[in-house]
Each structure stands twice: as C-alpha cells, then as structure tokens.
Write a structure and sequence with these properties.
5-stranded parallel β-sheet; alpha/beta; single chain; 158 residues; 16% strand
Length: 158
C-alpha cells in the first residue's frame, strides 16, 4: 500500500467515523518490524491510543486493563505471536487478539483456531479496511463484554 493510498484511507476513515467523547480505547500492536508498527500507529492513531511493542515480551509488559484488542505479528524474533497470545490471555482471558502476519502457513489454520481462538487472522498484504473493521468490531465486542461482566458482578453482589 502506498502512502497516497494510506492517506486516502485515513481521510475516508476520519470522515466516516462519528466524533467520540470520552477517553479513546487503547489497542496494543506487537510486531518486531518497526515499519509495520509505525504504519499501524498512523492508521489507528486518530481513533485509538496505540501502544506499540517490538517483541512478545514487550507486549506483555505493556498490557494494561484499558487495552481493548491486541494486533499481534505471528513470526517474530524470540517468542512468537502464538506465545504472546497465550500469555496475554493469561492476564486478560477475554482480550480479542488479531493475528496480523505475512505468513499463513506456519501452522494449520484449524490448529490455530482451536489452540489460540484468535478474533481474526489477517495477512499484511491484505486489504487494510478488513483490519480496520476487525479492530473496530473487536473493540466494541470487548467493551460490551466488560460491561456485561460488570453487570453480572453487580447482580451477584446484590
């Protein structure tokens, strides 16, 4: 995707999204490629607070309760994205994880679904709109899940 295409997509996204009030949701990007991290920060920076991590361990250290979704590269130096997903879920079991990778053949897709339950698995050379839609949907879903858990907890207390 060229910078011209990225800018057009960002402008279209800014025009189509409603103005939100209150704090912006946080998303976590874990990728060892600085270019990818910076492009995702530019892509999502107007709508979300983007937390960047260059490794699986950095991503786990950067995780906090306001993170609504994690975009995770699968193939990284050191621990891979699958390890990161498992570790993130130990801390936040309901956190949507979107695998964002240039590699589709590292594991059998059924094995990935059964073992890691990703919210999505998108390719880096794919349509950025699909990534934007997946992140937006994951953020909304996680927000609703948190609200439902709070409601259930309050009902249990009463």
């Amino acid at each position: 995707m060229s910078f011209k295409d990225l800018n057009a997509l960002l402008e279209e996204d800014a025009q189509s999204s409603a103005v939100e009030t209150g704090p912006r949701p946080h998303i976590l990007v874990i990728d060892d490629d600085e270019t990818i991290r910076m492009s995702l920060a530019a892509l999502f920076g107007k709508r979300y607070t983007v937390v960047l991590a260059a490794s699986a361990q950095e991503g786990l250290a950067a995780l906090h309760s306001d993170i609504r979704v994690a975009i995770v590269d699968v193939k990284m130096k050191g621990y891979d994205g699958f390890w990161a997903c498992n570790e993130l879920r130990k801390v936040h079991p309901d956190l949507p994880v979107i695998f964002y990778s240039a590699y589709q053949d590292l594991k059998d897709p059924y094995q990935i679904i059964n073992e890691h339950r990703p919210f999505g698995y998108l390719t880096k050379d794919g349509d950025r709109r699909r990534l934007i839609e997946a992140v937006d949907m994951a953020v909304r879903l996680y927000g609703l899940t948190r609200e439902a858990r709070k409601l259930v907890d309050s009902l249990r207390e009463s």
